[in-house]
Design a protein that fits this description.
It contains eight helices and 18 strands. With 438 residues, the chain is mainly beta. The protein has one domain: Porin, CATH 2.40.160. It starts with 18 loop residues before the first helix and ends with a strand.
């Protein structure tokens, strides 16, 4: 897409480019909407109130309903993301500027939505064994992109006349799938619990756009562009009903160990270790220099613009001499390693540290430090500070309570930056848990 400066006579523009927008608008144009053994903080902390850990599981079983949504980036502001995704509103140059000011040489953006219904039941013959099973849904998007990629997608390539724009390394990956899982936990001794869970995955939707190190050159007269970077496109049609879609199958495993001390709990987890085989992927691959001339269209963010529907990927690929193949593709799940340490300071205060790493290009280790203050023995306030991951530094607040003896509810709210300074910061989200124990 070729966007000209406001002072240029658009009527005289004969040749321009839609290629850059076609490659990279997919990073930002789609609205996108994991499961641990230790999500329920109240019940985890309550185990530290005694002088020793019971050898065996006290509860006969439980049912937990969980939902999570979050967005974060080290560059793209809450205001920009909200206008683009939630409101589908026109984004002015003034709206873009705060994000442009925050762009780094390499940028990260992540969006996740997940929900699960999860049950556990204790073995009748052996109280040291606990089984679990459930259903889960996940929609997850991660983008890693250069500063020039963002500027090409949202400002066009007129600013790069006679210059190269650095387009890689950049990548977009999006997973959408449902899973059925089964697991078992075992109390090895009063200090140690281990567990494993196996998931059968029904593939819903997958898309990947990867660009290696290289450049996009724009002709000084705006007549053509040349792409000199290796790339891969893997694309499926997004299903209207993601729950009913079936575009392949996969499997995954979670591994877990929890070590108890007198006043502390150390947990180590590996989540989503597995793969999915996606059927009938439209596949485009290139590693040459590609020359492209296109027709002029207006700003991709202008109201009523028909860019996404009128420009077909196949036709552009054909003009570039790129052949499309339809084939299956196997991808790894977004595997995560998590280490958690919870320490009880007093009868009122506990502190928890989390360290996470997700095996994605450019992803930074994610650290979270949380404090738990017991207003009453059954009601906790949970302030937290996070750093890394998709974003920079953020704050959270949580509430956790038990009621009616065997019910607990928890909400982690990630909204302060969104509410007080959406044009300066990134990151917002919400986690909800409702648990019934028997």
């Amino acid at each position: 897409m070729y966007n000209t400066p406001s002072t240029r006579n658009r009527g005289n523009m004969k040749n321009s480019i839609i290629f850059a927008g076609l490659l990279w608008l997919s990073f930002f144009s789609t609205a996108t909407f994991a499961q641990t053994y230790s999500d329920d903080l109240y019940w985890t902390i309550s185990k530290l109130r005694g002088d020793s850990i019971r050898i065996g599981f006290l509860d006969k079983g439980s049912v937990q309903l969980k939902g999570m949504y979050n967005y974060n980036s080290n560059s793209v502001t809450n205001d920009f993301f909200s206008k683009l995704v939630y409101k589908s509103a026109y984004i002015s140059e003034d709206d873009k500027q705060p994000t442009l000011d925050r762009l780094k040489a390499h940028n990260r953006l992540g969006v996740g939505l997940s929900a699960s219904l999860h049950g556990t039941f204790r073995s009748k013959k052996d109280t040291t064994v606990l089984f679990d099973a459930g259903l889960a849904y996940r929609d997850f998007t991660y983008a890693y992109f250069t500063k020039d990629v963002f500027k090409l997608a949202f400002q066009g390539n007129a600013q790069y006349e006679g210059q190269n724009a650095k387009v890689g390394p950049s990548s977009l990956k999006e997973w959408n799938y449902a899973s059925l899982f089964f697991g078992v936990q075992k109390v090895v001794c009063k200090e140690l619990i281990v567990g494993a869970r196996v998931s059968l995955i029904k593939a819903g939707f997958y898309r990947e756009t990867s660009m290696g190190a290289g450049n996009l050159y724009t002709d000084s007269a705006g007549a053509y562009v040349e792409l000199s970077a290796p790339f891969h496109w893997y694309n499926q049609q997004r299903p209207a009903n993601p729950f009913a879609a079936n575009n392949g199958w996969g499997a995954g495993v979670d591994l877990y160990a929890q070590r108890y001390f007198k006043k502390s709990i150390l947990s180590v987890e590996v989540k989503d270790l597995g793969a999915v085989n996606w059927r009938n992927m439209d596949t485009y691959t290139g590693n040459q220099t590609y020359h492209y001339e296109g027709q002029y269209i207006g700003d991709i963010l202008a109201p009523g613009n028909s860019y996404i529907s009128s420009v077909q990927l196949d036709s552009v690929a054909k003009q570039l001499g790129i052949n499309k193949e339809v084939k299956n593709k196997t991808t790894m799940l977004p595997t995560r390693l998590q280490v958690t340490y919870l320490h009880r300071l007093t009868t009122k205060w506990s502190v928890k540290g989390d360290l996470n790493y997700m095996f994605l290009q450019g992803y930074l280790p994610y650290a979270k430090v949380s404090g738990y203050y017991a207003i009453t023995p059954a009601f906790f306030v949970i302030p937290a500070v996070t750093v890394g991951g998709y974003g920079n530094i953020n704050t959270q607040i949580g509430l956790s309570a038990t009621f009616a003896g065997s019910w607990s509810a928890q909400a982690n709210i990630f909204a302060l930056e969104y509410l007080i300074a959406p044009k300066r910061y990134s990151g917002h989200g919400l986690e909800l848990y409702l648990t019934k124990r028997f």
